[in-house]
């Protein structure tokens, strides 16, 4: 079996994210109480996202591994022992996601040639942005239960799909209005996500086109 490398790592991440998002939708539709399954899907998905990191980059692997272990252990303790460690779990997931977005951006933006893996990578970054922002919204909801209209105060994994839905609707600046921010701190992160989502598409498309043009001229 061919090992995952930086030349094809985004394919694995892309499919893993699709499985995660669809799995969350199915669980929300048919079994909203299946939080343990969703947590398992999240950990597997994020673990697959670091598969392409070179073995020599031990610091990166250790950092990502520590964050995943923290999220997993705190999540398991929340289920088994009855402790409310949601803030710890969500914080670890948010730091992991934004750290990985930064690493993925460096790989895509520093490319000298445009390959299908880089195009898939730019899509993965967009998906990770929406996922990362949903963890921020869930964190806000843990601290301020009335921060959003349309999101009830309940276990964060039960709210995960609704938070992701709202995050991607905000990221794409569609804004249906069925979920909306009610407090200033929530409103700040909502309009920041809208701005970042708009600028990301413009900057990424321009960057890929310029790299492609430079690649054609050199050939």
From TrEMBL:
Alphabetical UniProt keywords: Membrane, Transmembrane, Transmembrane helix
InterPro entries on file: K_chnl_dom
UniProt name for this protein: Potassium channel domain-containing protein
Ranges for domain Potassium channel: 126-210
Membrane-spanning parts: 12-31, 37-54, 63-80, 86-105, 117-140, 160-177, 189-211
PROSITE patterns (alphabetical): PROKAR_LIPOPROTEIN (PS51257)
